[in-house]
Design goal:
Order of helices and strands: HHH
Strand content: under 5%
Distance between the termini: 60 Å
Helix content: over 70%
Number of domains: 1
Shape: elongated
Structural class: mainly alpha
Length: 108
């Protein structure tokens, strides 16, 4: 396989999406700040978008369906970031920390 023709294989995109998904899940588990968890969630959204675009590019008869789904995912991700950042700012104003372990008073 020629290096210039590697983008013609859907497996490359699926592997990249799986890597993004695994990185996002690892980030959600291991990050100790709310901002890090938010970024890891965005990686998961990027993996879903890449999967949709790959299926759209290589397997779907109508090329616009996957692109419309990805636009909805991008809008959802933007709304998620706006709401999550406002919540993080409110938590920081009350507790002076964005570490989830410091906010354990919310459970009581």
């Amino acid at each position: 396989m020629n290096l210039l023709q590697i983008h013609q294989q859907p497996a490359i995109y699926f592997v990249l999406a799986a890597f993004l998904l695994a990185t996002g899940i690892y980030g959600l588990i291991r990050r100790r700040t709310l901002i890090g968890m938010l970024i890891a969630g965005e990686l998961i959204f990027a993996a879903a978008s890449l999967n949709l675009m790959t299926v759209n590019r290589f397997f779907a008869p109508d090329p616009t369906v996957g692109q419309i789904f990805v636009l909805f995912i991008m809008g959802l991700a933007a709304a998620e970031v706006a709401i999550a950042l406002s919540i993080i700012i409110a938590v920081y104003r009350n507790y002076r920390s964005i570490h989830p372990s410091d906010i354990s008073e919310l459970n009581r």
